[in-house]
Structures are given as structure tokens and as C-alpha cells.
Automatic annotation (TrEMBL):
Keyword flag Signal: yes
NCBIfam families: autotrns_rpt (TIGR02601)
Secretion signal, residue range per the UniProt entry: 1-32
SMART domains reported in the protein's UniProt record: acidPPc
Protein name as it appears in the record: Phosphatase PAP2 family protein
Phosphatidic acid phosphatase type 2/haloperoxidase domain location: 175-291
Protein keywords: Signal
């Protein structure tokens, strides 16, 4: 099993300062087993969550008869019957909560207050960014909390009293789909909370600083108002992932907002980091269960269709502030909130597991892949084992959906991608941002455009149709590159082909000042198209160890310019 380290730094807002940490993206390279063997789901004591989710009811309180209790079972090795079984980890859990509350700024305090008071589903609308305005209008979305009061709310202050959105509105099917997940009678965390009975952090330590506006409300909370897992975070991932299914164009932004809701709960003093990590797991599993339920199939289709009408994606507000517009900020924040900086204290040798039905979460984000391929994406982008709470029997805790939206983490076998541009959306164009390794090869078919943006080390690339865009020097991997059709486009100044380059047909497209380094042999054919770029006689467009053949046609050069073939290069000549 191979792990690639990714180092990143989360820049916290205002007073919050978090140290740079290393959080690996696990890329598992299959050896003895086939890819299919690795993707076989593993049953938990309760069976499979997507099959048993409706057993999350008050009468079921064991790991065997309630999937939520079973999914959260690892926490019982830290805390059980009111006793601390892992004092060090639990102390760290409360200390992290205290540190976060002590360093929140005013904007974070207000955001966490609004997250607390508003309808759980309304909290995710901001993740739609420039489409939020249209959603509010066409879903009749409402809230009665828009700012934080200067004085504490009364102890008995109610939550939002208005309906968050209307099922009879223009966006009614989308609203109903969110309700089906986030307001399902089976989606709550009340049962497992009363099984675990873990006390909220502000009641464990006065170093956890509650948001002042909520101080009276929280002081008056009932004694059995428990911490683990976070219900708000569960609902955030249920709402966010359901919206992401219907609006995959905002997949990572909605995921980031979902995780931010969990962070808001820690900021407010309501929950501990372990509680929101657990909430992420429950919300993810519950959403997958809802989307796998055949009774919801028609509603899912209607929600997707209305989301892609003028009522939402056709009504972009270019003046709106998009809190989640920066990809790297989103990625850093989401990755931090996967683990909250906890160390791997458990078994770090466990193979990745992909839960039954989890692939549905990527169905609209990676629509050109098969279910098996989507499972493989989840497998190769999963988190390493050993982090607190996250090693549940099925594998829900280790799913890194943000990274999975960037495509494969490794090609453990040969992978063929067939994209049909006529279907639009991600079928027409997608960008794989991960650093992809593995011993497999990539074959691109179909009329769509696939962009490879990662620093890749998989074993070779074949383009048969459509466009394959290489966005950095090592995007093509470490093996041979074969161009049998379509357009191989360079959107970077330099690309290295570490094996052989063979172009039987198709078009190689690059800037006039770009350079392709071919470490071995070049077999040229097809066409060469040169795009804008500085012109300098003698510029080497391609270099190679040796060459056979020539391009059948070259375009994109002014009159008087041509290319020449030497023993080890193709050059611009005037």
C-alpha cells in the first residue's frame, strides 16, 4: 500500500492560527488482488447502511440493529458508561474545542450564531454562491435570523420559525429532495447521542468559550443534550451533499460549506471536533442511503432537471459575493476539518474500504464513469486509517469526497474514460486535479475534453478521441503517450513524455514557444497545430532520443515560417 504525502497550510481567519500539517491523500496500489476485489463492500455488524438506514429509530440502540449506532461504534472505545477510556484523546478533543473558541473573530462568532439559529437546511444555501440569489427567490427560501444580537438570547429562545423553502415553489422538487434526506424520520442523531451520552465541551471545561449571544440558551439546555455526534453537522452534510447531487457544478463548494457548518458548531462552543467528524460520517452515509433508495429515483431526476433550468443554474448573479470561490482555500479548509489535526492513533495499516452505495454520491459529478469506476475513485482518494472515529467497519469515515471530485487518486488498473460532449456539463469538460499515480494506463475516448492538472506518475496515456489537455509538465504520467485520434493539447509551456511518443493520427496542439521533451523515441504522424506564442527561429518544439515519421500537416505559423526536423528535435525555422 502506497501513500503520497500532501503538505498544506490552512490560513485561519483573523485571530485563528493553525500550524501547517501534513495530511496524506491515500493512493492504494493493488497488488495481489484485482481492482474489483478491492472495491467489494464490507458489511458492518448491522449489515450495510444503505440497506438498513430506516432502522435508525428509538427502539434500536445497539451496533447490530441500528446503523448509526454501529457507524459511530469506535467512540465507545474512548468513552462508555460515563467513563473516559482514552483520557488523552478526550482531553485533546476538549482542548481543541477550547482553542478554537478562544481564537474566533467577530465574523466567525456571528456566522456560528446564525448557523445555530437558522433552519439546518437553510444553512447550506450560501454554498451555491452566485446561484444562491436565484435559489432564495425561486425556492421561496426564508429565515428569521439575519444578524447576531448584542445581548444574549433568552434561555427559552426558539429556533427559526419560518419554513426554510417551499416544496410548491419553482424549485419544489429540489427542496423536496433536500427534505427527503435532511428531514427523514430516520436521519436524526438523537438515538446514538443517548446511547453514547458524551457531555458537550462547554460543560466539560470553562476554557470552551461560548458565543455570548447563545450563553443563556446553552446554559439552560437539558442535561441530556449531548455532544456526540453533531446533529447540525449531520444535517449539513445531508443537505449539502443532496444539493451537490442536483447541482454538481458546486460540488466542492457545497462540501466546504457543509464542513464549515461543523466548524461553526465548534466555534460556538456547542460541539467538540470529534462530534462534528462523526456528524460528517452520519450525514454522508444517510445521504447515500437516500439517493440509493429506489423510491426517490423520480424525485432525484426532477430535482436535477429543475436545478439545471433557468430557475437556478440559468440565473447566475454575477454581483453576488461567493464565499467559496477560491479552490485552494476550500481544499485546505475541508482537508483540515476531515481530522481537525488529530494524529493517527489507531491502526494505520487498514486497507481502504468503500461502503456499499457510496458511489451514488459521485453520480452527477463524474457522470462519464461507471459505478465501478466511481467506487475506484473513492478507493484511490480515501484517507489513511488510524484517525480517531473515522475507522468504521464500512469505510464512511475515510471517504474524502472533496478529493474524489477531482478524479482518480491512482490508476491501479487500465482505465478508459468515454466522455460525450453532446450531453453537456461534466460529460463535455472536466478537470482532474489530483496527483495520480499507479501502474495502470489512461485511455481517453469520446468527444469531451478531459484536463489533467495533477503531477501524475501513472503508467502511460492513450488518446483516441475528443480532447486531452495537459496542464503541467508531468500530467501525462511516466509511461508512453499514444495519440490515435482527437486533440492532445498543451496548456503549459513544458511537458515531459518519459516514455515513447507515438502519433498515428489526431492533432498535437501547443503554443509556438512550448516544448515537449520526449525521453525516448518519437513516431510522428497526424497534424501539428501551433497557437499563439512568441516566435523565435531555432526554437525546439519537440526533442527526443530518436525519431521516425513526420507530421502530415502543420498549421498556425505566419508566412515564411516552417518547421524543420533534425536528428533529435523539431524546430521552428524562418
Amino acid at each position: 500500500m502506497k501513500m503520497r504525502q500532501r503538505t498544506w497550510t490552512r490560513k485561519a481567519a483573523a485571530m485563528v492560527s493553525l500550524a501547517a500539517v501534513t495530511l496524506p491523500l491515500m493512493t492504494t496500489v493493488a497488488q495481489a488482488k484485482t481492482v474489483t476485489d478491492n472495491l467489494t463492500p464490507q458489511a458492518a455488524p448491522y449489515g450495510y447502511f444503505v440497506d438498513t438506514y430506516q432502522a435508525n429509530v428509538s427502539k434500536n440502540t445497539t451496533q447490530q440493529n441500528n446503523p448509526v449506532v454501529g457507524e459511530m461504534a469506535e467512540f465507545s472505545t474512548y468513552w462508555a458508561d460515563g467513563k473516559k477510556l482514552n483520557e488523552g484523546l478526550l482531553a485533546q478533543n476538549v482542548a481543541k474545542a477550547a482553542d478554537i473558541t478562544q481564537h474566533r473573530n467577530d465574523a466567525e462568532a456571528e456566522r456560528s450564531y446564525l448557523t445555530d439559529r437558522r433552519d439546518l437546511r437553510y444553512n447550506l444555501i450560501s454554498g451555491l454562491g452566485p446561484y444562491a440569489t436565484a435559489f432564495v427567490k425561486n425556492a421561496d427560501a426564508q429565515t428569521d435570523f439575519n444578524s447576531m444580537p448584542s445581548e444574549p438570547l433568552p434561555a427559552n429562545a426558539p429556533y427559526s420559525k419560518v419554513n426554510w423553502a417551499s416544496t410548491t415553489s419553482t424549485l419544489g422538487p429540489l427542496v423536496q429532495l433536500v427534505n427527503t434526506t435532511a428531514r427523514s424520520p430516520f436521519s436524526g442523531t438523537g438515538v446514538v447521542k443517548h446511547v453514547v451520552k458524551y457531555v458537550r465541551p462547554y460543560r466539560q471545561s470553562d476554557q470552551v468559550k461560548v458565543v455570548p449571544a447563545l450563553s443563556k440558551v446553552m446554559a439552560a439546555a437539558k442535561a441530556d443534550d449531548y455532544d456526540f455526534p453533531s446533529g447540525h453537522t449531520t444535517a449539513a452534510f445531508e443537505s449539502g451533499l443532496t444539493l451537490a447531487y442536483a447541482v454538481p457544478e458546486r460540488f466542492q463548494e457545497l462540501l466546504t460549506r457543509s464542513s464549515e457548518v461543523g466548524y461553526d458548531r465548534v466555534l460556538a462552543g456547542r460541539h467538540s471536533p470529534l462530534a462534528v467528524m462523526g456528524g460528517r460520517m452520519v450525514g454522508t452515509a444517510m445521504t447515500a442511503a437516500t439517493l440509493n433508495d429506489s423510491n426517490n429515483r423520480d424525485l432525484m431526476k426532477q430535482a436535477y432537471q429543475v436545478a439545471h433550468s433557468d430557475a437556478l443554474l440559468g440565473s447566475k448573479d454575477t454581483t453576488a459575493t461567493d464565499t467559496f470561490s477560491d479552490y485552494q482555500t476550500n481544499r485546505d479548509a475541508y482537508r483540515f476539518r476531515m481530522t481537525y489535526g488529530f494524529n493517527q492513533t489507531g491502526d494505520t495499516t487498514q486497507a481502504m474500504r468503500v461502503p456499499k452505495g457510496a458511489e451514488v454520491l459521485l453520480a452527477t459529478r463524474l457522470p462519464y464513469l461507471s459505478d465501478t469506476q466511481r467506487r475506484d475513485v473513492l478507493y484511490t482518494t480515501g484517507m489513511p486509517s488510524g484517525y480517531p472515529v473515522m475507522d468504521d467497519a464500512e469505510g464512511w469515515g475515510r471517504l474524502d469526497l472533496f478529493s474524489a471530485a477531482n478524479g482518480y487518486g491512482a490508476l491501479n488498473d487500465n482505465v478508459t474514460v468515454n466522455m460525450d460532449a453532446k450531453q453537456g456539463g461534466f460529460n463535455a469538460k472536466d478537470n482532474w486535479r489530483n496527483d495520480i499515480d499507479g501502474q495502470g494506463q489512461l485511455t481517453k475516448q469520446g468527444s469531451g475534453r478531459l484536463i489533467l492538472s495533477g503531477h501524475n506518475s501513472f503508467n502511460g496515456t492513450t488518446l483516441k478521441a475528443g480532447t486531452l489537455e495537459l496542464a503541467n509538465a508531468t500530467a501525462a504520467g511516466t509511461g508512453n503517450v499514444k495519440l490515435a485520434g482527437g486533440v492532445l493539447q498543451l496548456s503549459t509551456a513544458k511537458v515531459t513524455v518519459k516514455g515513447n511518443y507515438q502519433q498515428k493520427a489526431g492533432q498535437l496542439k501547443l503554443a509556438r514557444n512550448a516544448h515537449v521533451t520526449i525521453k525516448k523515441t518519437a513516431k510522428l504522424g497526424g497534424t501539428l497545430k501551433l497557437t499563439k506564442g512568441s516566435l523565435k527561429s531555432g526554437t525546439k518544439l519537440l526533442t527526443f532520443h530518436k525519431r521516425t515519421g513526420k507530421f502530415t500537416h502543420v498549421s498556425g505559423l505566419p508566412k515564411g515560417w516552417h518547421i524543420s526536423y533534425t536528428k533529435h528535435a523539431v524546430k521552428l525555422v524562418k
